Batch of 4 targets.
Target 1
Amino acid sequence: MDQTKALTALQPFVHLAMTTKDPSPRFVADLITRATSSPNTYVFTELLQTPAVQSLRESKEFQAHFKQLEQFAWGTWADYQTDPNLPPLNDVQTLKLRQLTLLSLPATPMPTTYDNLMKELSISSVPELETLITSAIYSSLLTARLSPASTPPTVHISSVAPLRDLRPASLPEMLKILQTWESRCASIVSELEQQVAAIKTEATTRRTKDIARQEIVDHAVQNIEGGGVGPAKGQPGGGKARDTETRKGKGVASGNKRDLQEQQGSDGYGEDDGEDGGVGVGVAKMEVDEGSGSAIMGKSEGPLRASKRVFGKKG
């Protein structure tokens, strides 16, 4: 049930309290009894604040009716039972106050087991308790599920209608609870922000390392594809130094034909001094007579032409 429907049901009683001229305390007390016994009236603060009802505070005879209306506005069945000066309840009022008590119980830490509810509502039998809860469900006062087979038997209340009024002294306590809750939320948000910042920093550092590692790999691949293993990042000129050392120490060409020819020329191969096709001064000579080789191979026709092949190397 929403508040609009409950307020609409209370309006006739509020209208009587506001428009009746010089209402007697007995009239106002009877109005309270009728309002709390009427169907669909579950919100009573507007009636409680009328001047006619407030006048009962000073009435010794009907002050109990004023306190009775306060119990219907924000009290519970247990609160009503602790005050013996309150007027007795009829059957409709008893059912309504018990239903309103069911709306307040989920706000307490007490488990809503069958035993706890029967004790809190002064009910002696399980069928009576289940009938009360069923009537509250069909009146749209709460959403609940009965579990009589569970251990212990429990009433699972998932939601209640916003029909209870606040006690006059409960607002500061509620503000204190809300401030504590706000402080906890702010602390949790701060911790989450710190964790997010740490994760971002770690991700940035990891990304930087990955980029540096990939640059080293790319540089090495380019050097290999270019014909030699180049220096790693941070070691400039390593590949050229090794190539120069190879040329000077071992006399090996760097890898192409033109360099080989230039090296052979600088070493003195093929330099002719003009005498017998031999090698110039300072070059060791070796002459090979190809005629003898031809005779051995059976080439005897005509005069043998002796040609000389000279091999030489600088001493």
Target 2
Amino acid sequence: LSQYLHSFPFNYQDTFPHGFALDYNQLKTIQQHHLSTYPFENLSLHYSATHTISLDADALFEKFVTADRGRGGYCMENNAFFGTMLRTMGYDVTSVGARVCNAINGGDGETFGGWSVIFIVSFRCLQETDGSHMVNIVTIADSKYMVDVGFGGNGATAPLPLREDDCIHERIAPSSEMRLARANIKQCTDASQRLWLYQARDTSEAAWQTQYCFTETEFLPADYAMMNFWTSQSRTSIFTQAILMAKMVMRGGEVVGAVTMFNGKVKRKVGDGVEERCCVTEKDRLEVLREWFGVRLTGEEERGIRGLVTELKGDGGT
């Protein structure tokens, strides 16, 4: 735990002089520093010898902390690791599964993907099959909060209370907002079922965009093992067909922007400023990984992408 907290750009013993208060403000501080330190990324499915993802707690700690090479992971890696760190601190954490809204990948904005291959075999399109997600629910006193560090550029940047009061929270300063809503979803045959919907928007004038839905039913390691296997190995999973990355930017103690990557296209958006770059070769992308994301790959990892659909070959990228 000490190694993990020392990875943040502050002295946690000075920041928490009286130990771990296990309150909302401390949880928010740790979540935001995690988001700006450990990226959402699926590099292990492309830049590695095995092209696999492990959810083993020791393997995750080695990857995130011990190796000290700027690595993170995709949703189940990031949230599983973060949940372990929170439990070690003393927080009451429950892990739950989520269904990603198909609008995220250009599909129907009122439908959602499944939790695993068991639930998605009847769907036809790529955007409708990449639906598995994982979030943590943290209980503080009598209040529950949804805490997510694994959804990329559109993810939540602070704990969101599980309350039906339409409370709006700042997501990225100065204008991006987020909230939780409670509603039934179109695919449910039981109209009485109500799920939590995580929603975000870029400005207060924009329409809310649902990102994913979840329940409060606890998921077990065996559930995530199935979800992780399909997400990381299926040839129709976007995670095996594209390189995805996102890392939040913090300044002055608040989240002010994000750096994102989709294959060879990279964007840094902080406030009203936007900087973009297009990588056309592997050399370009490895340079961006180092300079924009702080990720340092080994030689073996760099060679792992050879022959894959995501390899950049100098023709404009994938």
Target 3
Amino acid sequence: MPKDNMGTATMTRQHQTANAYVAAFNAMDVDAVAGFRAPNALRYILPSTLGHPPHDNATYIGSLRKLLSIFHSFSLTCHELVEDVPGRRIVMYLTARGDTDAGEYVNEYVWFLDFDESGDTILGHKEFVDAIMNRDFWPKLAKAMKAKEKK
């Protein structure tokens, strides 16, 4: 972590942005999440064997809105954060917990966030997810979202 002229550790702008991005998810504020992302940012869900195509911002933000319509609570906890300042990248290990129309949601993620030069904007987001949770619980979430759309 960089240090100021007194030798005190300071948080880089991209580190601050990564923390605020997590906070926006915890507040379930889709507009705030979108505000941290470049207009042309892509999100990749990994591993690729899950078969998810990359999501552009419109697709990603639209799916977040649908998902949050069935979430009653959501909380991300960052357990580890590794920062590559010259590479403008942050890697985070996170766990998630939420209450949904389909039951309790528990997941683990590793996020790779790539930033612009200012550290304010996320240019790309690669996300490793728990493959078992994705395989077993995602169909339940999809069913709950469809039921919500019919109302």
Target 4
Amino acid sequence: MRSLATRPKPIPTLYVKSLGKSSDQDDIRSIFDKARETAPCLLVFEDIDSLVSDHVRSFFLNEVDGLEVDRLDAGISKRPSRFDRKYHFALPATPERIQYCEYWRAKLQDNSSINLPPQISTAIANITEGFSFAYLQEAFVSALLSIVQKKEEAANVMKASNGAAIPDSSSDDLDKNPVWQAIDEQVQTLRREMKDSRKSVEDSGKNSMLSDAKSNSAVSAGFGLVR
């Protein structure tokens, strides 16, 4: 930590000694949000076993998913009961992305206000090359929330103007289907975020943080470099 702080371009250290009384997801989210804001930085947890309780462990691991596992302290990545095994999952291919879209079609088939025509699964799969299942889920969830918001806004306009039409979600024509339009928009947004994230990683990778970090003894249960 000292060598990072004394660099010509210092690398900040975020030291987490305790969480709020509830140790809930908001506490954990705020820590990782702060770490990403100050990245590249060294994120230190004094006693990870007491900080991360059972009911938030899955959430914590999802946040850690944004870090590079090979840059995690061995106390986190190799100690039994934390990451007992590591598996590499390749990004879903087109057939798998289509199947995932079909899952959403089946999930929403009883919702009369949302129309996902059969051809939408292949169309979405074709524009999401390189997306993980997490990114696919984000595209669907964000798109559906966007549709709900637009319908609420249209309903308010209709109420105010006594008769304005609410956008129709029932069209099978993808060019006119609000779900497809919303998902296409979200996919473009996510691609920009992915591109920006890769650029940030490449830029920060020019600093040899790993060699310096390994030369320091860990005073905590574990640490990870956030890039």
